[in-house]
Fold:
Amino acid sequence: MSTIKDVAKRAGVGIGTVSRVITGRGFVSEQTAKRVQKAIDALGYRPSPTARKLQAGKSQTIGVFLPVIRGSFYAPILHSLYTELQARGRHMVVAFGQTVTSERQEALEGAQFLIDHGCDGLILMATALKLRDVENLMSLQPRLALLNKHFDRYAEMCFVPDHEAAGSAAARALWQLGHRRFATIEGPEISADNVLRMRGFYKELAALGAEVDRIPRFYGDFMPKGGWAGARSLLAGKVRFTALFCANDEMALGALSYLSHEGVSVPDDISVMGYDGLDITTYTVPPLTTIGVPWTEIVLSTVNYLLNCCYGTKLPVERNPPATILWRGSVAAVGAAAKKVKPAPVP
Structure:
């Protein structure tokens, strides 16, 4: 298969001249253009679709960075991104990190990789990025969208759930069901979205009259093993509790598994609530009550916003869709509230 270099060599011109003849952009004398075209015809050279797009100044490709690609949380987000971009006739290049603890550096390296590969715009999901990081990246690629990260200065390009309000709703719901003794399994302290949802949870409980400082806490890793270890540590502690709030569903799955292993009845002995609303939570035993974050809608708006920036489209963009509580079998009322409040099942 002939290449543009072969055409240039046969016509006795530079690659840039051949490119100008193919794209019709820039000046080439009529005689030279004829010579180039003759070489193209003789060699049977056909520019690839990718080459044509690059020559037009657009790769029709969006770069995506995710912290990791594993577990039940990131895979559906990646699938949603791919599905939405494919539906709009665009391609996706993905870079991803390996660990939460090095997320910031991996995000910066991943973004640079995507920029170097000529992506028309970037979607970055990295809560560890700092404001100066984003501004440095914007100097290289101004068409950015941030998923699950917020900066007031660049609010228009940020798409993030209201984690603090969702954490507050979780605390209020458990309190209304009569729970007064709580325990928590948090995510990593360096995770900004974890900090926000837990801040909302504790702030709401404090406003309702709970002694927040006495709530036993375990810091996990957002993975099921962290939930298992957290439940084991909390059960071994001296403080008894009737409600366990986990900062994400995957840790809640691990906690449910350990509680079952130890013969603890959920929700009769301990109610368990998760966070994210993963599909898998409908199949646990018992099904997990969780904060349902509308990730599909958030991803769609993120994609639409970036496509509007890159290609001048006018796709709809929605901001701040609310989280909801998905009531299932892992949470029950206690005390007097048990006679008054019956959480509605998920249809």
